[in-house]
Amino acid sequence: MTGVARSALPEPYNQRVRALFEEPQHAGEVVNGPGRRFEGRASESAAGAQIVLAAVVSDGILAVLRFRVFGCPHLIAAAELTCERFEGEPVKKLQDFSVSDLMETLGVPVEKTGRILRLEDAVRALLLQIDRTATNKD
Amino acid sequence: MKSTHANAPIYLDDAATTRIDPQVAAALSACFAARADYGNAASSHIAGRRAQAAIDTARQQLGLLLNARPQDLIWTSGATESDNLAIIGAARFRAHRGRHLVTMTTEHKAVLESFDALEKEGFEVSRLSPGADGVLALSALEAAIREETQLVSIMHVNNETGVVQDIAAIGALCRSRDVLFHTDAAQSAGKLPVDLAALPVDLLSLTAHKFRGPQGVGALYIADRPGCSVAPLLHGGGQERRLRPGTSALHQIVGMGVAAKLAHDRLAANLRHVTALHERLWNAVKRIPGVTRNGSADAHYAGILNISAAGVEGESLMLALEPLCVASGSACNTQSREPSFVLKALGCTDLEAQSAIRFSFGPETSLGDIDFAGEHYRSAVTKLRAIAPAAAA
Questions:
Q1: What interhelical angle do A113-137 and A73-86 show, nearest 10?
Q2: B101 with B95: CB under 8 angstroms?
Q3: I need a surface site. Which of A62, A119, B94, B246 has the fewest CB within 10 A?
Q4: Interface touch B319/A47, C-beta < 8 Å
Q5: What's the pLDDT score for residue A47?
Q6: Of B319, B320, B388, which is closest to A70 when you measure between CB atoms?
Q7: Where are the domains of chain B?
Q8: Nearest to B18 by CA among B207, B229, B167
Q9: pTM of the predicted model, to two decimals?
């Protein structure tokens, strides 16, 4: 299509998704360090997306937040953005996790809502594990 | 996962469409520019007769490519229309003899949905599955053909895997049982030798844009044999022996003729070229752990290589592979979201099918393109596996 500007082409991913997908700073395992390690997992189905969120919590702070994802670029970008936003924040801030905000920021197509909801499941699973540990301590 | 998105695209999707040959583009332009020759081929005046002469030349050029009589070729808008006309038209033409039809589960949608439409008209359709290599067992076809069977439609080269069916043997079987044989040759015409004087094929569909001609034009070969014809799907004119009425698309037909001539002249050289590219790409990727070829390694057209990578999500792989222009088996970037039904018919799991990538190349593809593609694929697979949970990777 000679002469058609790239900006005029239909794009399945916005620039934010592309940037987060290309350079996922928080992909991988948590490294050993001070604090306790927690993990939240979620998956779509046997053949679908898989998400692992891992955190090191120190003094009520998400000192380290990492993800592993088997899924589409939107899900990888959403996981990376989640880690970017909540790493270094108090654990309770994770309760502010918002699917709709992620969907809007990343321009996630509505038919992929289910995948982003699985990320929410992983966040909830992580929170639950942290809460249980705290409760057991009490 | 740094992509080279800003880099120029490397086109490896010839099975979807090929880039038009400069000589074909020149012929199209000349057709528009030569105003004295631009008429309606159905008109009896000089401009109409000149248009008809140009169309006749194109028909001869296409006849040369297929070793077919020019008068046995009719122009259509492409392979989809040719498939529809061949299948629906032949079934209706022979409906008084019987209403059983046979095809394969790995056919193009243009074929499968034509049969779906015929089922709604009361025809019975047998859909045969290939083996894990994508090849149809002749014995399965033999068992499927009944007394009332009128048409068998089996594609020559599969558009996703490149698997080649033995259309000579299939056609011979059909002839022996007095059954018409149609083949969708969209992926083989102009790329592999297709000799219709020797092959027992009754109906053959093809399209120009798969062999560097223009999009929007194709042809249907109808053998000049007793009982072999089609009932037209369109009505309203005498063009194309009344089988496909409508004003002939002069410039596109001229372009298809030139593309056919070039494909004929270059066929052997092009085939050697894509065979070398195929071997180079497969050698570059086959040692990546978990990478498998989809479809037969023996009965295949070398211009297509379809591979799956365990533990890699297809849509992410497609993005990571930019600037390569390739096709995905996950279909997340197409209008469908289902894993490829073709790969599933070969026994692939959903995960294997959605990680599949089809590389397809042609005479314009360079060794440098292939080397880049192989290395880029390895890099993308490695990086995506590195961020996937252990269970997936």
A1: 30
A2: no
A3: B246
A4: no
A5: 64
A6: B388
A7: 10-20+267-387, 22-263
A8: B207
A9: 0.92
Q: Which residues pair with B306 in a beta bridge?
A: B358
Assess A54–B contact: CB distance below 8 Å, yes or no.
no
Give the pair of three-digit tokens for residue B244: 């496909």
**Nearest-by-Cβ selection for A28 from B387, B391, B392:** B387
Report which DSSP code applies to B123: -
Whether the ω angle into residue B323 lies within 30 degrees of 0, i.e. cis, is yes
Distance CA B170, CA B150 (A): 14
b/e for A99-130, b at 16 or more Cβ within 10 A?
A: eeebbebbebeeebeebbebbbbbbbbbbebb
Interatomic CA distance for residues A78 and A13, integer angstroms: 12
Domain B22-263 has CATH 3.40.50.720: no
Q: If residue B151 lies in a helix (H) or strand (E), which one and from where to where?
A: strand B149-153
* DSSP 8-state secondary structure symbol assigned to residue A96: G
Query: Is A78 inside a domain boundary?
Result: yes
Catalytic residue at B31? no
Which amino acid is present at A86? Answer: F
Q: Is B384:A71 a contact under the CB 8 Å cutoff? A: no
Residue spans of chain B under pLDDT 50: 1-6, 331-335
CA angle (A23 as vertex; A74, A43 as ends), nearest 5: 40
Does domain B10-20+267-387 fall under CATH 3.40.630.30? My reply is: no
Q: How far is CA A5 from CA A2, A9, B83, B97, B285, in A?
A: 9, 7, 36, 56, 34
The answer to whether A14 contacts chain B (CB < 8 Å) is no
Give the model's pLDDT for residue A137: 61
Q: Domain range for residue A72?
A: 22-137
- Give the Cα separation of B39 and B339 in Å (integer): 47
Cβ separation B354–A12 shorter than 8 A:
no
Instruction: Give pairs for B129-132: CB < 8 Å, separation 24+.
Output: B129/B104, B129/B105, B129/B345, B130/B104, B130/B105, B130/B106, B130/B163, B130/B345, B130/B346, B132/B346, B132/B347
Q: How far apart are CA B332 and CA A111, in angstroms?
A: 11
